[in-house]
Amino acid sequence: MLNLRKRLFICLLFLLFLFPTAQIVTASEVEINFARALQLSLYFYDANKCGPGITGGRLEWRGDCHLEDMKRSYEDLSIPLSLILTYRDIFDPDGDGYIDFSGGFHDAGDHVKFGLPQSYSASTLGWGYYEFKEAFRKTGQEEHMLEILKAFSDYFLKCTFLDENGEVIAFAYMVGEGTVDHSYWGPPELQSLTDFNVRPVDFAYADDPASDQCAGASAALTLMYLNYKDIDQAYAEECLEKAIALYEFARKYRGLGRGDGFYPSSGYYDELSWAAVWLYVATGNMEYIDHIMAEEDGRYVGYLSDIIETTENTWQNIWTHCWDTVWGGVFTKLATLFPENELLDYLARWNLEYWTGGQVPHEDPNDTNYLQSSPAGYACINTWGSARYNTAAQLLCLVYQKYNPERTDLTDWARGQMEYLMGNNPMGYSYIVGYGEKYAQHPHHRAAHGSKTNSMEDPVEHRHILWGALVGGPDESDYHVDLTTDYVYNEVAIDFNAAFVGALAGHYLLYGEGHEPLEDFPPSEGDVLEFYSQARLEQENNERTQVTITLTNDAVHPPRTEDGLSIRYFFDISELVAAGQSIADVSYAIYYDENAARYDGPVQTRGPVHWADNTYYIEIFWTGYQVYGDREVQLALMAAQDANWKSNWDPANDYSRQGIGETNNMTPRIPVYIDGILVYGEEPPAAGKAPAAPELSATVYEDARMVRLEWNRVEDAEGYRILWRAEKGVPGTEIIDVGDNNSYMMENLVDNNTYYFEVQAYNRYGVSPSSNVVRVTIGTSGDFTPGDINDDGRVDSLDYVLLRRYVLGIIREFDSEKGKLAADINQDGFVDSLDYILLRRNLVGE
What we know:
Number of strands: 26
């Protein structure tokens, strides 16, 4: 023991020499709470969920994403069209030309749904729950765990297509294109709006098999059967049915699936064995074990032949259970199922002893083959994601000890490894994001980072805490780099957390007495300033003011675009009035428009609009554009000279000019609005009261292509203006000031076009809210059904999907000529989230 202490002291001195700024933390200074760590570890999967149903879930900063996966066209699929058409009633039961591949989980910080990591993660999570179910129950995490497991299995079931005989036609194992996807660094909720959203679907089928992918999914579904059969027998039976079908398909059609260059598989015999082990557990059918261990004339002829040639040979596994090679899990489970089999016990036990670095010696004292530990005792087999391998070895130790209770020497080693990852290490912080007082702050994860500029370095600090994520971990010298850009040391992934979750559950049952999870977790991030404006002065003199204004949509709960944003710049012309001038002497211009230069079109403007006394405003609209992040616009206000050729412009009294300097600063005096409703800033005081909204009616003279608009006179109104737009031919909203009149004839309307009209009253103190919207369609019969967006005679989930995609900005128009008319459920002239809510309520019978 003395020699060991001396060696440890020398190692610590060596570390201090190498890393003089590192903080050596002792076990007594680190909080070890396996219940809390287990609780946190599950939330990483909420951060990586894909598809619908995420908004309003366990993490306020995640929302529905990649909804286009709900409706993938045949040409997006790596499968012959002839095969789809042959089995169209199975692939596409409603015959609309689309197939649903939504759901599942993003792989890591990226947004591809890779095959092997998903099936490995699902099966390993399921295994951890299967072995240590009591830990989840005692810590109150069972519901959350089952929710995650079901999200995996729902996805696998959806992606497995069986014929009438229950045999696999095809299995979709990957969605997305890694190279394109990895060029995007932003929230998953907004990727659909970019050019980095190429999401082909890769299939396994008879002529292009993927035994590894199919067998991996089979194992996951079988474990779901075992974990769910006492909760929902029918669902569990469906999981088992498709698990068996996938396994048989993987056996019959041999070959490796694609990993898109990111997850190349080294073989499929291990996944076939993994699936067979769990099918045996589920059915008791020894044929599955024979598939692994069959032998003839002293030679293995089953899956075992891939690594062991004859019954006289053994094999020493120096790797561990992971996304590519699951032999470690296979032998650990086989050893617990058949404890009398010395070969299986040796294969499992030797691997575990190897990982301890000699802390638990081999039975053969002459066998000195061990994984070399770091100076601080950490088992590191590979720098890239070292913690995933380390925690997988821990899980194997804990499962082995469960069936061999005397082997606490293995789990004591595993406990020390987990405590290292929890903060008892030379770097002085936890490798579990959000755990402990000090932890890795910058995991390589787009959603948590929250960049608006497609940059890993902007912002410097993460917007959100990626609760429970196990970062890549240290190297063999106990060194780690906590940088967002470093995907070797600081990557996070669904396969990283898979064995980690199960290991924590096992540790809790053995060593977690008195450990408790956190209450009311996760904590709210609180109110976030989602919309605001900034401004800086460009130039100014006695003739003009020129400012650059930045509109910001910083919505993060969840990230989302807005298409009704506007800002108002208020100014006072008292100095002009004193010189005998009026608002007619003021003009304005937009000198730079980032939305037009870099995005999807120019802003719209209106003004000057009278506010109160001598105060007016210019309003700038981004209506109709899906805005997220920043949009710059440069506004110039100019005053003409008076009758004496004198310039009288003086911005000192302008409300919105106050506080603007030469650098960008937030300015609440340039308010931000969504659909005319103030969401940021403060308006200047009004000396009087703007009028109320009028009520609008219309008489249509279709043969003459005219509409007569009429409205009631409003108290204190000095005039009225008509706001109108057309679906075809008129950009944005046009405004007609009709003075004090309360009727107007719109002429020269166009056939097969739909027009929207509303009226506002105004006086010197401001403009009223808009009246009701009147919609008029010229030259059509108008025989459409509200909600029947695809014009198929039914209002159903297909219409719901179309409307959702339109509201989210995934599509810009509908295929059906009557689509936009039918999509305006409440007939207010706009297709927006209100229509989406109404259609959803109608479909669910609310």
